[in-house]
């Protein structure tokens, strides 16, 4: 990978704006991978605002799984920089499509689900290996402990996914109230 940058922070902390700025500085042929699913009107509006904030020459690919399919996508192949927004939505989508009965599931089912999520993440990282990459994720470890089982499962899996990516990243930013704080930089 040319470079891997992780941008994390809380909701509405300025993660996406920072990631877009980093992408503009790193490359000319930028692919934006959007992982959100427009499941209601509120999400449709959020997606619309995100699209409007991006330059028109960026290619948008909507995907949260099956990243190996990108290896035959010409716009992806020709890109030099990939911005994926966001990892936590990707994790959420993968968890929800698992059809597990989270109120009655076993720890083995949760462990298998986490392995599946990590496999999808590893597939994504291997496909984008020769590009500048900026990943956006939500910091999930600074909030309240969820009062329901699915919330705890999501928080735990997303937290471990974030740790995995941060360890592999060259640079990691934490955004707070629109202010980026560099918390890791490999030399």
TrEMBL record:
<dbReference type="Pfam" id="PF02283">
    <property type="entry name" value="CobU"/>
</dbReference>
<keyword id="KW-0169">Cobalamin biosynthesis</keyword>
<feature type="binding site">
    <location>
        <position position="62"/>
    </location>
    <ligand>
        <name>GTP</name>
    </ligand>
</feature>
<keyword id="KW-0548">Nucleotidyltransferase</keyword>
<dbReference type="GO" id="GO:0009236">
    <property type="term" value="P:cobalamin biosynthetic process"/>
</dbReference>
<feature type="binding site">
    <location>
        <begin position="34"/>
        <end position="36"/>
    </location>
    <ligand>
        <name>GTP</name>
    </ligand>
</feature>
<dbReference type="GO" id="GO:0008820">
    <property type="term" value="F:cobinamide phosphate guanylyltransferase activity"/>
</dbReference>
<feature type="binding site">
    <location>
        <position position="85"/>
    </location>
    <ligand>
        <name>GTP</name>
    </ligand>
</feature>
<dbReference type="InterPro" id="IPR027417">
    <property type="entry name" value="P-loop_NTPase"/>
</dbReference>
<feature type="active site" description="GMP-histidine intermediate">
    <location>
        <position position="50"/>
    </location>
</feature>
<keyword id="KW-0808">Transferase</keyword>
<dbReference type="GO" id="GO:0005524">
    <property type="term" value="F:ATP binding"/>
</dbReference>
<keyword id="KW-0067">ATP-binding</keyword>
<comment type="pathway">
    <text>Cofactor biosynthesis; adenosylcobalamin biosynthesis; adenosylcobalamin from cob(II)yrinate a,c-diamide: step 6/7.</text>
</comment>
<keyword id="KW-0547">Nucleotide-binding</keyword>
<comment type="function">
    <text>Catalyzes ATP-dependent phosphorylation of adenosylcobinamide and addition of GMP to adenosylcobinamide phosphate.</text>
</comment>
<feature type="binding site">
    <location>
        <begin position="51"/>
        <end position="54"/>
    </location>
    <ligand>
        <name>GTP</name>
    </ligand>
</feature>
<dbReference type="GO" id="GO:0005525">
    <property type="term" value="F:GTP binding"/>
</dbReference>
<keyword id="KW-0342">GTP-binding</keyword>
<comment type="pathway">
    <text>Cofactor biosynthesis; adenosylcobalamin biosynthesis; adenosylcobalamin from cob(II)yrinate a,c-diamide: step 5/7.</text>
</comment>
<feature type="binding site">
    <location>
        <begin position="9"/>
        <end position="16"/>
    </location>
    <ligand>
        <name>GTP</name>
    </ligand>
</feature>
<keyword id="KW-0418">Kinase</keyword>
<dbReference type="InterPro" id="IPR003203">
    <property type="entry name" value="CobU/CobP"/>
</dbReference>
<comment type="similarity">
    <text>Belongs to the CobU/CobP family.</text>
</comment>
<dbReference type="GO" id="GO:0043752">
    <property type="term" value="F:adenosylcobinamide kinase activity"/>
</dbReference>
<protein>
    <recommendedName>
        <fullName>Adenosylcobinamide kinase</fullName>
        <ecNumber>2.7.1.156</ecNumber>
        <ecNumber>2.7.7.62</ecNumber>
    </recommendedName>
</protein>
């Amino acid at each position: 990978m040319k470079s891997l940058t992780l941008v994390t922070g809380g909701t509405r902390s300025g993660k996406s704006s920072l990631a877009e700025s980093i992408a503009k500085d790193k490359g000319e042929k930028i692919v934006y991978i959007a992982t959100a699913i427009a499941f209601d009107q509120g999400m449709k509006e959020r997606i619309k605002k995100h699209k409007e904030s991006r330059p028109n020459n960026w290619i948008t690919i909507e995907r949260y799984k099956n990243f190996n399919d990108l290896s035959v996508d010409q716009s992806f192949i020709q890109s030099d920089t990939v911005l994926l927004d966001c990892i936590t939505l990707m994790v959420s989508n993968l968890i929800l499509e698992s059809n597990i009965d989270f109120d009655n599931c076993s720890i083995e089912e949760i462990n298998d689900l986490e392995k599946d999520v990590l496999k999808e993440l590893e597939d994504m990282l291997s496909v984008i290996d020769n590009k500048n990459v900026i990943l956006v994720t939500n910091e999930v470890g600074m909030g309240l402990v969820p009062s329901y089982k699915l919330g705890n499962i999501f928080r735990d899996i997303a937290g471990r996914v974030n740790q995995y990516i941060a360890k592999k990243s060259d640079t990691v930013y934490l955004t707070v109230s629109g202010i980026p704080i560099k918390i890791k930089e490999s030399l």
